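From the pipeline queue, job 12 of 40. The input is one protein chain; the requested action is below.

Action: predict structure.
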Amino acid sequence: MKKIILFVLALTWMGSMQAQQVISLPQPEVSKLSMSLGDALGQRRSERQYSDKEISQQTLSTLLWAACGVSDPKTGKITAPSAINMQDVKVYVCTKDGVCLYNAKNNTLTKVSNKNLLEAIAGRQAFAKSAPVSLVLVSTKDNDRAPNDKFGAMDAGYVSQNIYLACTALGLKTVARATMDFDTLKRELNLAETSYLELNHPIGY
């Protein structure tokens, strides 16, 4: 019995190590975002149909940088506005192969789950799970400077607009959604009670 317990614990530990895999992203190609602001605003649309064409890590890196990446390494400022600079919005990158958390400072993805959660993200709207990538915006409360429920939604809105404009410049399609299976995602992503699932963006061609 003792051997069985040890074996199960070893498997759990191995699974945890695998889930915490860190993936280095290519440097974002900011030049790919050179479409004029006027053109990006004029062409931005919400799209709900996607092909199954995969999104390269290079394109993903550029999109994530535009969403809330570090734009000034000296100060740590990011591309999206943030109420009192809380920078509380975390971006989870979800594919059929699992879920990773974007680390803007290091330009990396940390694997947090090996499960395909696209169906949980789609919720009642089945079209959303056809996109090869979904970005889930989670508001966290990492400090006590301001109530999370007051500023989290605002900050998520800023990041969401950046995602829209970057997708337009990169030839990608997306739509901002508030629909999702909140209970399942909060459990599977192991989110703290002070975290809130704000929005998600299916991304595809």
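Job complete. Strands lie at 22-24, 70-72, 77-78, 89-95, 98-103, 108-113, 133-139, 173-174, 196-204.
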